[in-house]
Amino acid sequence: MARNCAPVKMGVVAAGVGACCLLSPGAFVAPTTPSLRASHAAAQLAGVQSEAPSSEGQGSSWLASGAAGLLLSGVAARALSGGRRAESSVALRATGIGINGFGRIGRQVARIAMKDPEVELKLVNASYEADYLAYMMKYDSIHGRYDGTVEVDGDSLVIDGHKVALSHTRDPAEIPFAKYGADYVCESTGVFLTTEKIQAHLKAGAKKVVFSAPAKDDSHTIVMGVNQETYKPEMQAVSCASCTTNGLAPMVKAINDAFGIKRGLMTTIHAMTASQPTVDGASKKDWRGGRAASGNIIPSSTGAAKACALVIPAIKGKLTGMAFRVPTIDVSVVDLTCELEKPTTYEEICAEIKRRANGDMKCYLGYCDESLVSTDFETCSISSTFDAKAGIMLDSTFVKLVAWYDNEWGYSCRVVDLIKYMAKEDAKAK
């Protein structure tokens, strides 16, 4: 990931690492050349100015229409279907990936992968026919139309001129990973979430499997920007944790590193998901979970806060949390209320998070001092965007911190990032 780029007012997201969206001058990472040139082209396509600020001391009023610049994280990515794919011809061999399951995460992973020259989408396994899979790839009620070409060629998709094989089996042992060179697999069915259960994937030719959900065994968990250095090439399966853990852990890491967290409670105000009914239905295990997602605020459980200890061992036993499911279709927000070990001020906390967002945690931790709302963060590639205006402090050690995350797009960016990281580490080990 680039570390030496100058701040700009908008950014391009290509698998979430080449560039990230900016909410205030200097707050997030900016794209490097040639991505910077591409970002200006994408800005013109979207009708938004993309001039660089002259100094970091300027205010954050540059967003011409609310937070339109943030939305370019997705617009720009989709606009680069030709240019970024062309760059891959001079790059090292792209990592071949497969996707098992074409739900909300599988589809976004496919879109992101198609715009990233470091990976090549080889195969999608889903139970639907090719024409319907093409439809699902083209259209999305949240992230918009796929700004590229999607065609059907027999039982394959041709996306931006690139042929993607399809298979339609519920048995992972029958998925032709080896035949099509899908070495790294995004397992997004939600079914095969243990090292034991992905042995069938490996027998079918996959080299490594990434769970786009918390593991149901002791398979290693990685949150990019937090503990990716703990990956070892001998690992067969790795979990990318949950979207909420990815939305919480970067902020927790920054705060714990600087001030220490003595204890804390997290609440996620979470957009509704496909697992919830739109109208009242039956749910024996979770009675409230069976109520209409489209018309209720629904208290729910979450293991996201406790799962932070899997990637930040120093906070084990110090965090727990719960969720409220709300009737919005994308973007969630975490509220972390915690007691700090080191007395500080809210201004010092903001400064530290901004420093980390500009430093070693670029593209994973973001900083926002605009008065934004949830839809402003749709299709944002940042894992966790700290909202400086939303937090409050009671005294020098007791604080409430708020961070936004696109629970679909941002998380899917991290899945692709994790695959790329694993592939590079595996190559070093050979």
Automatic annotation (TrEMBL):
GO molecular function: glyceraldehyde-3-phosphate dehydrogenase (NAD+) (phosphorylating) activity; NAD binding; NADP binding
Pfam assignment, any one: Gp_dh_N
NAD recorded as keyword: yes
Keyword line: Glycolysis, NAD, Oxidoreductase
GO biological process, any: glucose metabolic process
Entry-linked Gene3D superfamilies: Dihydrodipicolinate Reductase, domain 2, NAD(P)-binding Rossmann-like Domain
Domain Glyceraldehyde 3-phosphate dehydrogenase NAD(P) binding: 95-243
Catalytic activity, EC: 1.2.1.12
Leading EC class: oxidoreductase
GO cellular component term of the entry, any: cytosol
Transmembrane segments: none
Catalytic activity: D-glyceraldehyde 3-phosphate + phosphate + NAD(+) = (2R)-3-phospho-glyceroyl phosphate + NADH + H(+)
Pathways involved: Carbohydrate degradation; glycolysis; pyruvate from D-glyceraldehyde 3-phosphate: step 1/5
Family the UniProt entry places it in: Belongs to the glyceraldehyde-3-phosphate dehydrogenase family.
Summary of subunit composition and partner proteins: Homotetramer.
Name of the molecule in the record: Glyceraldehyde-3-phosphate dehydrogenase
Organism whose genome encodes this protein: Polarella glacialis (Dinoflagellate)
